């Protein structure tokens, strides 16, 4: 590549090709995955229908506050770097550095996990085909979608998410008909809410345990913040996405928990088995569809779950690629990754991220899988760390904005419950992170403690080392010195 070519690629900008419907489906799709289709059964088995409902509702409120914080930040400053940029501007460059690399690594490894899961899902239909073949096929598909353009990614994610949303809506409609006794035999009434220890089985400890699981289920909603950097009209589209997406996600999760709780007793062994993501037949969705008389329920849900996996991989590849690009633009990653092709796609960042995803997959299929397990463990808390960063950045931004004499009425979107919202979110998130495996901590099971919490000290280490190496220029930024300038995008016709 000549010097002129290099200069041209570095002066190109991301193409703002995402519309409102793309942003809404990106946020919805990010939260609807195997956590709902498979994990929801295990949570009911563990805490009863009432306990699961309470835990998911509480986490949903926390996510609402986080999303409102993200909405205010991303409408004011809609950039692909999102929380990395906000962390650098509103807290400290070192915090932003750690946030960016934490998020990139999280989704790069998540891509590997989705490739592994896709191989397992395909074995349901074609058990004799090696999983690495499916991994290669799906990685090529997702990389191809992301290589074309942001619009191609958005369209792919729109239809992936549409399939998932349709499956949930059909499930809810059939579930209501079955609860009413119109379909699938006589109505169960409230019998499954009063059997055994229901509705709250296992006491508060079980509810707290489900609280942690529910938190993982909602991860991915923050993807819309990264996508704001390529939205055609972020000041119009982001508030719409934030306002509508939360209620839709809550409808899906709370509705699904209610339906499952009415139709299946929490003592049903299949619900506990549904936590095993290799057993599609144990999915509560499969069980309900079968009771509704859908003979091919397992195959239908297998296809839906495969779609959910591809959706997560697609979104993860997009988000991590844009994060790596943004870090390169700001000088916290090699400049090579800031190069864009003529369609505005950061190709080198895409290739690097896809390679890391492939490497992670290979660590699982080769050897005993120990390296893969630890890679997954390192990324386990990454989503919660990002949410903590979002709430903290919002708190700092708003305080600095007011401190410097600006009128909050001039903000394109204002989180309605500031400062209570981000404060509640921060407290709840700290509880979630601290309680990841509190039993192992209490019992002194060192290996389990390390497995559950290793992501946190690594994040703090990266933050601290960057601060140590860069010195005073990465100090904690005072409210007076915080850069609160926004970015107004003029939509193109």
UniProtKB/TrEMBL annotation:
<dbReference type="InterPro" id="IPR004841">
    <property type="entry name" value="AA-permease/SLC12A_dom"/>
</dbReference>
<feature type="transmembrane region" description="Helical">
    <location>
        <begin position="416"/>
        <end position="438"/>
    </location>
</feature>
<dbReference type="Pfam" id="PF00324">
    <property type="entry name" value="AA_permease"/>
</dbReference>
<keyword id="KW-0029">Amino-acid transport</keyword>
<feature type="transmembrane region" description="Helical">
    <location>
        <begin position="165"/>
        <end position="184"/>
    </location>
</feature>
<feature type="transmembrane region" description="Helical">
    <location>
        <begin position="104"/>
        <end position="126"/>
    </location>
</feature>
<dbReference type="GO" id="GO:0015171">
    <property type="term" value="F:amino acid transmembrane transporter activity"/>
</dbReference>
<feature type="transmembrane region" description="Helical">
    <location>
        <begin position="374"/>
        <end position="395"/>
    </location>
</feature>
<protein>
    <submittedName>
        <fullName>Lysine-specific permease</fullName>
    </submittedName>
</protein>
<feature type="transmembrane region" description="Helical">
    <location>
        <begin position="132"/>
        <end position="153"/>
    </location>
</feature>
<dbReference type="GO" id="GO:0016020">
    <property type="term" value="C:membrane"/>
</dbReference>
<feature type="transmembrane region" description="Helical">
    <location>
        <begin position="50"/>
        <end position="67"/>
    </location>
</feature>
<dbReference type="InterPro" id="IPR050524">
    <property type="entry name" value="APC_YAT"/>
</dbReference>
<keyword id="KW-1133">Transmembrane helix</keyword>
<feature type="transmembrane region" description="Helical">
    <location>
        <begin position="245"/>
        <end position="264"/>
    </location>
</feature>
<feature type="transmembrane region" description="Helical">
    <location>
        <begin position="294"/>
        <end position="319"/>
    </location>
</feature>
<dbReference type="InterPro" id="IPR004840">
    <property type="entry name" value="Amino_acid_permease_CS"/>
</dbReference>
<feature type="transmembrane region" description="Helical">
    <location>
        <begin position="204"/>
        <end position="224"/>
    </location>
</feature>
<feature type="transmembrane region" description="Helical">
    <location>
        <begin position="450"/>
        <end position="469"/>
    </location>
</feature>
<feature type="transmembrane region" description="Helical">
    <location>
        <begin position="344"/>
        <end position="362"/>
    </location>
</feature>
<comment type="similarity">
    <text>Belongs to the amino acid-polyamine-organocation (APC) superfamily. Amino acid transporter (AAT) (TC 2.A.3.1) family.</text>
</comment>
<keyword id="KW-0812">Transmembrane</keyword>
<feature type="transmembrane region" description="Helical">
    <location>
        <begin position="25"/>
        <end position="44"/>
    </location>
</feature>
<keyword id="KW-0813">Transport</keyword>
<feature type="domain" description="Amino acid permease/ SLC12A">
    <location>
        <begin position="22"/>
        <end position="467"/>
    </location>
</feature>
<keyword id="KW-0472">Membrane</keyword>
